[in-house]
Amino acid sequence: MRGLLRVAFLPILGKRIISIDMKGSSMNIRDFMLALLLMWPVITEAQPFSFAHVTDTHVGGSTGAEDLERTVRDLNAQAGIDFVLVTGDVTEFGSREELEEARRILDGLQKPWYAVPGNHDSKWSESGCNDFVQVFGAENFVFEKGGLLFIGTASGPNMRMAPALVPREQLLWLDSVLTAMKDPVLPVIFINHYPLDASMSNSGKVLELLKSRNVRVSLMGHGHNNKLFDFGGLPGVMARSNLRAGRETGGYNIVTVTRDTLFFAERVTGRETLPVWCKIPLKGNPEYSRSPEVMKEWTEVPVPTKIYSTSASGASAPVRVMWEVTDPSDIGAGVAARGHIVVYTRTDGHIVARDLKDGRVIWTFRTGGKLFSTPAIRGNKVVCPSTDGHIRCLDLKDGSLLWDFPTPRPIVASPVIGGQRVFTGSSEGVFRANRLKDGAQLWQYDSVRNFVETRPLLYRGAVYFGSWGNSFYALDQKNGALQWTREKYANRMLSPAAVWPVAARGKIFIVAPDRRMTALDAATGREIWDSGKWSCRESIGISGDKKEVYIKNMTEGNVLALETRCDSQKVVWECEAGLGYEIAPSPVTQKGDLLFVPTTSGVIYAIDRKENRVVWKYQAGEALINHILPVGGRRLLVTTFDGKVVCLRY
Predict the structure, then answer these.
(1) How far is Cα 260 from Cα 295, in angstroms, rounded to an integer?
(2) What are the tens digits of pLDDT across the range 183-195?
(3) Secondary structure letter of residue 304 according to DSSP
(4) Three-state SS at 588
């Protein structure tokens, strides 16, 4: 753990975030944290003070900014509050403008404040989650106050629709902080946006770390209501949203700390503080909370279960691991391969090439920003954009830089190569084509609404893609001229932006957060059919012979094959796969008779498309499956969001 992580903390002396970048440092991060913690005074018990718990402010949506401004004024009028915790969903969509507005409002506080991002700050982040760090200084914090240690981390999900996931870098940082504590008995308050339950993919690992020390409570938002949880013996307190939500004014919680207890009371902004609704002991056994007089609602969280490699009959599955690696950061994109070289990207800014045979690293290339793009390979060239605002082309054999094309804004989209052209969308309202040979721009279309996340589709002379501006585009591959655009909804959350489109028989097939599958005329954009009979979201696939297009139900847990030839939605077969609630946007892939279905839970389902049944399933990780790429020799390359790369033989 040398020189990998950004360590951030906010001293009580001021409200502005201070971050210390350890990248490239020769100092061991554990030693640094230990030295930092040794400087803190050891207090044997908590000293009385109060703080405010503000959450889910959603600046940029509805009344978010106005409600937060009112809360800031209300907090400034209360001298007894020492500092403020803001536990995520600070903004509505995580845009630079929304983040800067939220920062401006919070800077009006006349007391220290500390913030972590939530899913609204990271899922729809046009910057690939870089803007939050740039505007707020860090995604995590640690500080001591009155004999309590406060530790906050980010929770995701970053860019992809999936359960929350404390990023791997943050887990390593959290482990460093807890390990470096001088006094393991010091009471700890953990701050995150999400509950530590099934809504977070790696909640088990987080809880394991927290329970190694005297963590007394987890504070969170996300649910917009005051609620008490039991995370396997660790109390969790969810706070109400700051939004007024149809009422005259919004609100937050005031937490009063005594020598042995935390008291939580809801504050109606500018009006009154309601009676205490929850209290958390700082000493003894947390079984106190089962007493009805001290709890509002107690929710016991079951221990999550794992799915292992099994066949449909429950016997050992016909799949085995050829090799598996766990990287030091999350992986937020798919994998590309040519010959014996496998290439993928990591959220710590690295492009990595491994040997297909044994998984050893062949080369790495470090960019200046987080990476959420799946690389594209043609010949000896690997093309990959980065959120540092560059499209780069590397030599496949050694990772050397062949060309570099700078852009004004970050790129979270994946490129596609057609002939000698590279097609890429960006976060600046631009879609462009570059020459594969040297990176020279051939054309750009500059009227894209909002940002592009998807990998575009090349079909019959056009390039097709969606954006988070609720639009779907068809451009001429040769000159970028607009052929048609489709806009169906006013709500941008329903945008067909994450799906990798597929095409066959003159039709473009898409699925979107509207839970519908749509067939569009490739030449005109005319809607051929659009049915909500079978729920789906952003995951789609197509057979090699182009006769079947695949979707997975969002709620029913089934997988369906639909006919590509018909001008109405016709099901060819349906498999009762038992996926459960499934929102992974990753594409469905196919090889031979098997269909490979990704999930948000890290499980791969293999479905026999002739017999319409699950033949095996394998748990590759605990988080979202980004991509399942079939390669030669009945092998699969898989990346998971929790940093795993797996090569399976089936």
Answers:
(1) 17
(2) 888 899 999 999 9
(3) P
(4) coil
Answer yes or no: are the C-beta atoms of 629 and 335 closer than 8 Å: yes
Ordered by where they begin, the domains of the chain are 6-300 (3.60.21.10), 335-490 (2.130.10.10)
Q: How far is CA 256 from CA 51, 177, 259, 385, in A?
A: 7, 25, 10, 48
Beta partners for residue 435, in sequence order: 421
For 445, residues 6+ apart whose C-beta sits below 8 A from its C-beta are 430, 431, 432, 473, 475, 480, 482
pLDDT above 90 covers a percentage of the chain that reads: 78
Q: How far apart are CA 148 and CA 187, in angstroms?
A: 5
Distances (CA, A) of 312 to 565, 576, 577, 608, 617: 32, 12, 10, 11, 8
Query: 45-76: b or e for each residue (b if 16 or more CB lie within 10 Å)?
Result: ebeebbbbbbbbbbbbeebbbebbebbbebbe
Residue 476: how many CB atoms within 10 A of its CB? Answer: 15
To 5 degrees, how large is the angle CA 359–CA 586–CA 493? 145
Nearest to residue 462, comparing CAs of 522, 518, 374, 513?
Answer: 522
Query: For residues 597 and 615, what is the distance between their CA atoms, to the nearest angstrom?
Result: 12
CA distances from 437 to 23, 198, 262, 392, 582 (A): 33, 47, 63, 12, 41
Q: What is the pLDDT of residue 36?
A: 53
- Name residues whose C-beta falls within 8 Å of residue 119's C-beta, 6 or more positions apart in sequence: 88, 89, 155, 156, 157, 164, 193, 194, 222
Two tokens, residue 615: 């033949």
Q: pTM of the predicted model, to two decimals?
A: 0.87
Residue 214 has pLDDT above 50, yes or no: yes
Q: Which residues pair with 309 in a beta bridge?
A: none
Q: Which two tokens stand for residue 84?
A: 């403020």
**pLDDT tens-digit profile of 248-267?**
999 999 999 999 999 999 99
Neighbours of 489 (CB within 10 A): 13
Predicted confidence (pLDDT) at residue 44 exceeds the cutoff of 60: no
At 27 the pLDDT is 35
Q: What confidence category does residue 284 fall into, taking pLDDT thresholds of 50, 70 and 90?
A: confident
Position 130 pLDDT exceeds 70: yes
pLDDT higher for 18 or 383? 383
Instruction: Determine the average pLDDT of the residues in 15-32.
Output: 37
CB contact set of 592 (below 8 Å; sequence gap of 6+): none
Residue 350: strand pairing partners:
366
Sheet order of strands, 527-531 included: 502-504, 507-511, 517-521, 527-531
The residue to which tokens 């992986």 are assigned: 331
Tokens (6 digits) for 170: 């943050």
- Report the DSSP beta bridge partners of residue 575: 559
